[in-house]
Design brief:
- By secondary structure, the protein is mostly helical.
- The chain has helices at about 1-20, 65-70, 100-110, 115, 120-130, 135-150, 155-170, 175-190, 195-205, 215-235, 255-265, 275-285, 290-305, 310-325, 335-350, 355-385, 390-400, 405-420, 430-435.
- The longest helix has 29 residues, at about 355-385.
- It is elongated and about 95 Å long.
- The N and C termini lie far apart (about 75 Å).
- The model is unreliable at about 10-45, about 55-70 and about 450-455 (pLDDT under 50).
Length: about 450
């Protein structure tokens, strides 16, 4: 008894405040949800990047406003069918059974330590329970039933409030899972996309393997696509506040769009939209000039989704991204090397799927080879100007060996012939002084240092 009294002590302290600041809501309530299974609509994001930019989807029964028609961006809810709540077949365990969530919660509470009872979440839970806001199956079922009726009548705002009540009054149950999903649907069809996305995220965080997974990630994907389109029509700084449009976030519309795509992949990594979400993320980065992030995500398609329909576009755009990341002959040559390897791999593995892109890719491959030769030539020239002729000869030889058919190979042969008798290093005019330096502090001569074929030492 004493232990139970201690657990309730923080709640008793705050009870007067809770009663004074809150009014007990009317007892609405819920019911059983049921199984949901509908095909997921496709959302091809990559078409405009590959020259197949489709016309904006026509709305189904929901007319676009003047501004939407002018911009070509239609709210994503306008093209989606409304979920029929009558298709749910959730079975909620009877009260008092071993599977009853409240029975489990009671057992967990008995095992709660005194320190745990002082946590803010535990205090809030106890206060809510004492103020009449605690779990109650009867209230939850009634609220859910009312929400279903309102939802069927397309009174989404009122239905969302009922589903919210049902979820909070019967937590950790199939009823809460369905209530959260339908609450997200209510926000979705009232174009409150930020609330909808947050609610879907809450659902998938709490119910990782939810039976609503396919539909939920499809909604999140559509929301991300809409936010990206809105940003493309009206670009703005990430810190520019949005105070008038409920359809997009308050800040950083593009960032929230990319995050929505990422949530699709993270919550359903093997689902039908996972590779689409990665491709959409990569395309978004590419079209907005963030080539390093784009290249990384195109590589994800290539490595993690080998059977994806986006393999060829991801490779072609990946080669382009890596070439954009490459900064020149005196900088890191890794992006250029990877671009060349990917171009050759694509030409070898997908010769019949490239179509008109094949000739462009061959041309790009030749440009990469020429740039690699120019890189080795520039490094050789650098060492020759510094009179490190040994290192210069090494890189001239690399040009001839690795890129024999380029113009730089001819130039390298001429330079090798001219400097073949030059000393490997410049004359040391202070040799007597450098000899005084302990050998442990001296670096190896350049000709003895290991050199890579593609980068300066």
């Amino acid at each position: 008894m004493f232990a139970h009294a201690l657990k309730l002590l923080p709640a008793v302290v705050l009870l007067s405040w809770a009663v004074g600041c809150q009014s007990v809501p009317p007892l609405p309530n819920g019911t059983n949800p049921q199984e949901y299974n509908k095909p997921v609509a496709e959302h091809p994001l990559w078409d405009r990047l590959m020259g197949r930019d489709p016309a904006p989807p026509a709305s189904e029964g929901v007319p676009a406003t003047e501004n939407q028609a002018a911009s070509g961006v239609v709210p994503t809810s306008a093209t989606e069918p409304v979920t029929d709540p009558a298709t749910h077949t959730t079975v909620v365990p009877p009260a008092g059974s071993k599977d009853d969530p409240l029975t489990k919660n009671k057992e967990e509470e008995e095992e709660t330590s005194f320190l745990d009872s002082l946590s803010p979440s535990r205090i809030a839970k106890n206060v809510k329970a004492m103020a009449g806001y605690g779990p109650d199956e009867k209230i939850a079922r009634a609220a859910f039933k009312e929400g279903e009726s309102l939802y069927t009548e397309k009174k989404f705002e009122e239905a969302a409030a009922k589903f919210s009540t049902a979820a909070s009054r019967w937590p950790d149950s199939p009823l809460e899972e369905d209530a959260l999903f339908l609450m997200g649907e209510c926000y979705f069809f009232t174009d409150q996309y930020t609330k909808a996305n947050d609610t879907y995220g809450k659902l998938l965080k709490k119910y990782e393997f939810s039976r609503h997974l396919d539909k939920t990630v499809a909604r999140m994907f559509a929301i991300g696509r809409y936010w990206e389109q809105v940003y493309d029509v009206d670009p703005h700084w990430p810190i520019t506040p949005n105070l008038t449009d409920n359809k997009r976030p308050m800040f950083d519309t593009l960032g929230h769009s990319i995050k929505a795509y990422e949530q699709v992949r993270l919550n359903d990594p093997t689902g039908p939209l996972a590779d689409d979400a990665v491709m959409a993320t990569a395309n978004s980065y590419f079209t907005h000039g963030r080539y390093e992030e784009a290249a990384y995500n195109y590589d994800q398609i290539r490595k993690e989704y080998p059977k994806s329909e986006h393999q060829v576009p991801a490779r072609l755009l990946g080669v382009k991204s890596k070439m954009e990341v490459y900064q020149g002959s005196m900088y890191d040559g890794t992006p250029l090397k990877e671009a060349g390897e990917m171009a050759q791999e694509t030409l070898t593995q997908f010769p019949d799927q490239l179509g008109k892109e094949k000739s462009r890719l061959v041309q790009t491959k030749n440009e990469i080879v020429a740039e690699q030769a120019a890189r080795d030539w520039a490094i050789a020239q650098f060492y020759e100007k510094k009179k490190f002729y040994g290192a210069a000869r090494y890189y001239y030889a690399e040009v001839i060996k690795s890129h024999p058919q380029t113009e730089y190979a001819v130039k390298a042969r001429n330079r090798l012939e001219e400097i073949k008798d030059y000393p490997a290093e410049p004359t040391n005019y202070v040799k007597q002084l450098t000899d005084l330096i302990p050998s442990s502090h001296k670096t190896l001569p350049l000709k003895q240092q290991p050199l890579s074929s593609g980068a300066p030492p």
